[in-house]
């Protein structure tokens, strides 16, 4: 009897494969399903079932692809907003055998209406569940967000409260296997730690310390979450079942020089931030690999044509895979190499200036505007006086709130998101932008004052 | 914050690495320590501490080697029978920080006098331990054996009872991380499943259903365990700290033909049982890779010279590694290839005859003696009338109980151990031996009667 | 500028990828094309061209699949027997640029009418070709067979003579990159060595020592080659362009017991020969992985349903891949495990008896018939008096030459092919068969007399 | 019979392993010898001999280490300047059997006095050598340098002429296997291509077109080569036989902040050049991984303490390995991470300004001094008027030729070496430095005038 966790970095997505005696089940597979097949093979198991804890809004499900490759049956909870074409509907109490494992469905709506949790029993030690796949209902250190149906916000929050009670009742002594870890857009307060028990959460998870339903609802309603525009695209694709992806084709740096005279959609530079600051293709947007899945869905549309600019083929492939996981399939070209060599070939490049804390303090006196692109919750906690808050994810829809004549200094917690924001502004015609390296961290280390 | 389990097949040994914020700790490392170093690197962590839950008797500890390679400190519980030369002694309540993880020592004697368990706290969610490394004190589905000090058997069993109470008190809601899984010689009743919580064990583990100390002791004293002769060698080596190992050198099949005229220690044939039955080197002992760590320590001595006979280099390397893990370092030569080709080169080979259930039934009438090499506990449960029980592990010291003139049919549950036994008997001059293929399984499937 | 050789074991097939400055070309790709794509990526190259030196008869070409995945153009020589649907026709002297490499077509018919060779020039050091992809025209130590058009045998042999002259003229100082190495059915006398130069071949290759066209033709006409029935299927598939393959599904040993009552096509046991001899599924045919591509095309038909019996998943996967490379796609099930355990589950098994040289000598006196399944050329060289020659590949079509009442001893050079033959005979109702372990090798080592 | 090439990037070093029938030989192993052992294992071969074509001056030989691990014998040519302690001396005509391969020694002094070449014969096709390991005597497109004994320069060049004649005589039809490819410091004019034949070189290699001994010597004497100071250290180490290497230990970015107040030897930043330009640790030297082996030996001493600054662990490990290959073993610490985060932790950073061609043109009018750090041969071919040439490798010993008060613009062919030079100058107190991005390439693409 084995259980393995498959983590998808960037999305902080956790999926699972469990198996026993030649059979296996996969919970919440991602789009690139090779890992599940390979683990099943190592354990000489056949994948018999695929479970989706809910219809994902932040990534493409691999259930349809995996089912096609393995002849497994896909199981999905009731009450999805539309018909999940590739799955059977399962209800409270249904049980599925996987070798000596027994999986039992709990209906746990709240995050979405179709959310389920899945209890894991060992049929030879069956007094109580030993594990629970809790989807986006219960995380380590947090619970699911309940803001996806704005008109039914209180109702959904109440449902989640009830669902959490149900899990506490049915699986108090179980290990928790959630669908996301720290860094996900599906919750703010998750622990860095990815292992816990229901009982440990009952003592430690801040949201589980709230015992009154009303108070819980009030708390949930007060939460501020961002919802990326690509979520609705994901939801639609996850009704239909996604297909496998294509690899991007290589174009040479010289070809990139040719592209300079044409319009070819977005140029996304996935190198480390520092490389972008020193030299980049004019008009390109800085978005390092590790940040792609978090922000591409905000700044670009899955249908957009995208040209990736990467240091080497491995980096470009990783970037294309990250994008495919969230439904961006039009990444047909990329460019490999250094800008030093690009410059030697006669290519145009530009730089993006950075500032230290002391320089920022100085420029603030000279009417440069600090633009803080962190989330509103981060800003409220602590910020530099005089700074304007505008969440990085909202830039695409809020450009009209910015003045092309103003001189901006972008900042965030460290300078990473600030660099992305600055590059995006420049790609959209707001040219007087510099980046605050170290951002709030450097400001605080310099012992300069903050408010909030 | 991560935790990864490193399983060592054969020994059913489980070791762990946990880490957070650039630091890591390893619990109960095996001798081949590359895996720990490589996982630490993936997480950009430095190994800061190595913990041993007790002095191992069934495998070589890698603590001294890993400490040398990483400058980590080794921590070992008090009351070991001798000085663990490479480790510091830790006591109840001592705490160690590993990034945001806090590890706290519980003294849990019983299996051995120096047994400790280690509580894992997340310093940011610290109401109760979230994990416990329970060594050989608590397993999934069983508890540690307490027969290592025969004169203090009741006392040790009582200590174990108290230690389990302590774990239940201090870590009820924690995930259990034991030092062994199913298949280990360190316990008989372990679950196939390798994940559980303390609370789930309290409801399901048969030994934890016994609430009275006296009754628990009585139960433990009634247990029948085998103790391999190599255990005492392991214990001695694990006081001193083992060194790294050498790779065996290749010799060709032709060289093996030359060996036929000389005496070169043991020839161990690690191919699948069926290959051995069809053709093997006269005088060689059948012991497939997967059974090596379980039986080599019984049938051979760590100082013996061993020549491995394997299908290919990968199999020979795996076998040599398995042997090194239990302290067998004199495996300097091996031979690769098929016996078909060996025969074509003029090499001598022999076969070992197999019998079906019907043939066994027939031969039993003709005074062939069934020799059942399963454990006494298995035999007591169910056996064929007229069969003689002699545990495979005891063959080396019990050859005088067998009669070279008798015709033996070896049997076990399936025929695997029976093949090993038959080959070992023939290597020791008891030549009239055949193997019962399918053994008790085949007998039962043929609906023949059993007793016990 | 790089060149890498991709070897396909079993088929002894050699394919190549060459590249320079971001571009690459592939010569004679096999069906599983992942290796070419991965090497191209490592070198940051785009595959621009795919060349086929001729229409393959012994393996499925991957050209159509690779072209689809990479948008590369496929180039094929003129005069194929039918239209190669996925390729452009190229003629003598056409040149293709791949970075700083220049590839030039030589028409070299003889082995087939559409055979070409491809000269490789370095455009910066272009006095003479530095390499030549010689397909099945010139091998290391041999030349291509010319028996595929029986009515034009002399004409084809003459063409080959001229083609070899052409290569000697145009590429005397080049390295030779042939399409096959030792062990291929496409030539008998190939060297074990896979690297050579045209000039070295001119001095060493026995066929290139024949300077007169007539004499060369006479020699070629005297050659005896076997032609597997699947060759014609391959040729047809290689006109159309093959598709990618499916992975076989796992069935458990228990399922295999069920199969015993039904008819499910062929059961092929791909374990090492020795495992088969000791215990196998009644009616199954022994054909170890390493021999699959050499004999499956003779004994079975690509349309046949095949159930593989393997030791583990890795072995089964390798076997399915080998079969797919020669067009066998109906291998949908396989079984993993040991026959010891199969017997314990109540499964039926049988053994296949082996004989030593001395035993064979003895049985020959008692009217057992030696059946030598080596090639006629091997037999003519040396054989045991009284033995009957019947090539293993011909068994499927020559069963009527054997007498079900006769007692046969199968033999070959070592016992490998003899085991395959014995199992095939028994699967076809000829039951009195034993295998001569070591075969001719053991006979000679015993200093028994041979003739021939 | 197999041959595999092991390339060492950075050093452009080529080593080889050949094998046949269970035996193998390695030619010119590098210090990290795992690759040879692993290839030998794949082919089920024992490494029997190790050959050194000469005592290496540009890398640490792995011969002593590999011999210790495999019990192979090491063979080295006569006339080394000192006793190679771990090797036997071999002479012209000595032959060594490796399975069916025969290796024969040719004494080919010229590059060094102890240089040998090794002919490869296939004992079954032995009319002429089929391969020649030509060491640093004959390369693809070039021949070895002969300037290591300045007082005997003409004599050495003459010896090389004779040695090349010998190779042409003995191995005209052989494939050439040289010890270096393009990019090595051991020759300037090597082809990008790494495969050739002696005959093809006779027609294409520029140096082999010179038929008169005197003319050849004159040509060699006119060559301008640089000799890194670490060469003499290598030569000494390669007499004694090097040991294996240690892995560097990780220090955190915070630890690096602490280091700022102390002196800890060199800080080498191995990230891509662009990352360094945007932000780096004050006082650190830019030397990307790919340039390490080419320049570390010039700028630093093998005994120096080195702290590596890398993007991640993989990059740091690669850098430490590159350094170990050329004898730098004191790289005990490194730092992983981005400078954005380093700045957020309060760490100090600095930038290095870049210039475009137009900006350079402008600044030249304002008395900024162009410093061209290419080799003198590159400079002589074409350079910008008014620029000062000083080879990057000579900076360490020529700092006194530069004026701390002058404003320098560093340049090279693309900007890579220019960045290294600028960082090195600043680390040595010459602070007014900017880097010409694109350097001569960008200048030419802008159609600005050059001379030379």
Molecular structure report:
The structure is a homotetramer of 452-residue chains. Chain A has helices at residues 34-42, 63-70, 153-170, 198-204, 213-222, 230-240, 253-259, 273-278, 292-299, 313-325, 339-344, 357-365, 376-381, 395-398, 416-427, 439-445; strands at residues 2-8, 13-20, 23-27, 46-52, 73-76, 88-89, 95-98, 101-107, 116-122, 131-135, 175-178, 196-197, 249-251, 266-269, 285-286, 306-310, 333-336, 354-355, 369-372, 388-389, 408-411, 433-436. Chain A has 452 residues and is an alpha/beta fold. Chain A has 3 domains: 2-240, Metallo-beta-lactamase, Chain A (4-Layer Sandwich), CATH 3.60.15.10; 249-344, Rhodanese-like domain (Oxidized Rhodanese, domain 1), CATH 3.40.250.10; 354-445, 3-Layer(aba) Sandwich (Oxidized Rhodanese, domain 1), CATH 3.40.250.10. A 6-stranded mixed β-sheet of chain A has the order 1-2-3-4-5-6, with helices on one face. In chain A, a hairpin with a 2-residue loop joins β7 (95-98) and β8 (101-107). In chain A, α3 (153-170) crosses α5. The first copy, chain A, is globular. Chains in contact: A-B, A-C, A-D, B-C, B-D, C-D. The interface between A and D is large, with 37 and 37 residues.
